[in-house]
Amino acid sequence: MIAGLHWTAWLLLILSVGLGLAIEFIYYFTHRRPKHPDATPSDQKP
Amino acid sequence: MVSTTIITVLVVYLIILLAIGMWGGRESGSVAGYYVAGKKLPSWVIAFSSNTTGESGWLLLGLTGMGYLVGIHALWIVMGEVLGVTLGWVLVASRFKEYTDRYDCITVPDYLESRFQDSRHLIRLVSVVIILSMVTVYTAAQLTASGKAFSSFLDTSYTTGVLIGAAVILYYTTIGGFKAVAYSDLLQGVLMLLGLIVLPIVGIINAGGWSSLMAQLQAADPNLLEPMGEFGVSVPGVLSALGFIGIGLAFLGAPQLLTRFISARDRGEIVTGGLMAVVCIIIFDLGAVFAGMAGRAIFPGLADHETIFPTMSAALFPNIFTGIFLVIVLAAIMSTVDSLLILASSAVVVDVVQKIYNPAITEKRLSLYGKLTTVVIGVCALVMAIGEVRMIFWFVLFAWSGLASAFAPVILCSLFWKRTTRAGAVAGMIGGFLTTITWVLVFKEQFFDLYEMLPGFFAGFGLTIGVSLFTNPPDGAADELEAVRRSITNYED
User: Fold this and answer.
1) Is the separation of the CB atoms in B86 and B271 below 8 Å?
2) DSSP string, B186-242
3) Are B97 and B262 in contact (CB under 8 A)?
4) Is pLDDT at B450 greater than 50 in this prediction?
5) Handedness of CA B151, B155, B158, B160 (dihedral sign)
6) In the structure, what pLDDT confidence band is assigned to residue B11 with cuts at 50, 70 and 90?
7) Of B281, B395, B415, B458, which sees the most CB atoms within 10 A?
8) Which of B173-177, B419-423, B487-491 is predicted most confidently?
């Protein structure tokens, strides 16, 4: 028991937020800035 | 006795909503302006708007109630939602935005019809029927939440609460359009965030701290601290966990959420918006579950577990904050219902009247039809809500899965698989939708109460792929998909 909870409960808590957050952080830091000057129609809106 | 402080806070909030409605109404002269805010929304608005649309009275009353009822087992819901939101933004958003800009779409049926070159409008018509039916059910579920919230906070009757909620929502949605909806979602999202940070913290402190809370829950029912709940590691336990995770599948294709991607200013806003959306949903969901668990320790004998949020607000805070918590519940309800009503209104006005029957119809007449649709759905939902007091958690999830099972598999296949055909799309939408309904009515109880999203979603996928394999894709679809993929890759490299 850790702080009143079984380790499996802590594992569920960490996985419940950690999986999605890790994927999102990886995506964000690899895609956050457009590097190509010739963007697509959707990015050339006035 | 009703507190004047609570009423005052409520009235101030409603005046602010009215002002936002009027401000948004000035900018919504065109159809595109009314339904997607002219595609000019920045990242923080689309992020908050998509989360508050997805999270409604279900979050504040239903998920807190589920945290109260099953404790740690409710974290499977958190896992499903966080993964669903993440994958929705990472996998779907950019591609969907690129496609809808290429086609100049403002609705999801618009996109599907263009993608599959459906000149007979069959996909559009199927979409509209599904949207209208599920939006009515979903709205009825939110009005149920409104009834429970008002009766818990202000001691009104359930029916009075339903009527007040319906009147306010219909009024500001009708006048404001999507811009008012999106910016009021932002305000409401900030309120929800604050409420779901403060309430669990105060609740845990009142329970005597974290260790004391865990000890009380352990004493009340040891299963409250078990990941698999009362079921243990068994078939019902695994299916319950899978069903909870399955709630997140809707983020991959529910039309009321996809509309936010259409309305983004550009794809750069989507990358930023995704991070905000994921962090926000984590705070929302963890806050709701732990608030419910703290409530279980402090108020163990509650007759209706879905009233734990108002019960804790009234007991643990001074009146002015109780009023704010009532506002937060209403904010959650309204931020979902207004988006649903806009979705349904666009389905009738744009997808049926303008695109199928009368392209030359004036904007003024379109606007009138849109408002009439809003009122008709609102009245039908009102009758449904008043007729029976249902459990918010499962009532909302039924409508949630009806929309998601119909649209998400087809949306995913359309964005990633060049072989998806028009016939496959129609079969997938109808199949996913009917499977959801049939499962609830006939099979659910016999299969350990497995949440209907799972069979519906996989039936939708199976039919989309299966029928597509025996029919022909639209001309040029493969080249177009490749062009979209290259366009996104070029943008992001």
Assistant:
1) no
2) HHHHHHHHHHHHHHHHHHHHHTTSHHHHHHHHHHH-GGGG-TTGGG-SSHHHHHHHH
3) yes
4) yes
5) negative
6) confident
7) B281
8) B419-423
Q: Which residue has the tokens 């666009």?
A: B346
Q: Which domain holds residue B136?
A: 4-397
Residue A30 DSSP class: H
Does any domain span residue B214?
A: yes
CA distance B122 to B107: 15
Dist CA B20 CA B37 (whole Å): 14
The DSSP code for B472 is P
**Distance from the first to the final alpha carbon of chain A:** 58
B interface with A, Cβ–Cβ < 8 A, is 39, 72, 75-76, 78-79, 82-83, 85-87, 89-90, 97-98, 101-102, 210-211, 213-215, 218, 225-227, 265-268, 271-272, 274-275, 278-279, 282, 286, 487-488, 490-493
In a domain, B50, yes or no: yes
Domain count for chain B:
1
pTM value surpassing 0.90: no
Mean per-residue pLDDT for B131-151? 89
Tokens standing for residue B176: 């404001």
pLDDT tens for B328-375 read: 888 888 888 888 888 888 888 878 888 888 778 887 788 788 888 888
Taking the C-alpha atoms of residue B419 and residue B421, their distance in angstroms, rounded to an integer, is: 6
> Does residue B334 contact residue B146 with C-beta atoms inside 8 Å?
no
Indicate the angle between helix axes B122-154 and B319-346, nearest 10 degrees: 160
Of B469 and B493, more confident:
B469
Three-state secondary-structure class, residue A44: coil
Query: For residue B461, what are its two tokens?
Result: 């996928």
Q: Which residues on neighbouring strands pair with residue A5, listed in sequence order?
A: A2
Reported ipTM: the value is 0.83
Shortest CB distance from B267 goes to which of A8, A27, A42? A42
**Residue B411 falls within a domain, yes or no?**
no
Say if residues B48 and B185 touch (Cβ distance below 8 Å): yes
Q: Is A43 on the interface with B (CB under 8 A)?
A: yes
Taking contacts as CB-CB distances below 8 angstroms, the residues of chain B near A30 are 492
The Cα B351–Cα B348 span in angstroms is: 6
User: Which stretches does DSSP call E strand in B56-121?
Assistant: none
Least Cα distance to B236 among B458, B447, B68, B452 occurs for B447
Report phi then psi at B180, rounded to 5.
Answer: -60, -40
Whether A37 has its CB under 8 Å from any CB of chain B: the answer is: no
Task: Name residue, tokens 């960490």.
Answer: A14
Q: Does residue B318 belong to any structural domain of this protein?
A: yes
Interior/surface letters B309-343, b for 16+ CB within 10 angstroms, e for the rest:
bbbbbbebbeeebbbbbbbbbbbbbbbbbbbbbbb
Domain of B306: which CATH number?
Answer: 1.20.1730.10
Neighbouring C-beta atoms of residue B47, cutoff 10 Å: 30
Q: Please compute the mean of the pLDDT values over residues B299-310 and round it to a whole number.
A: 92
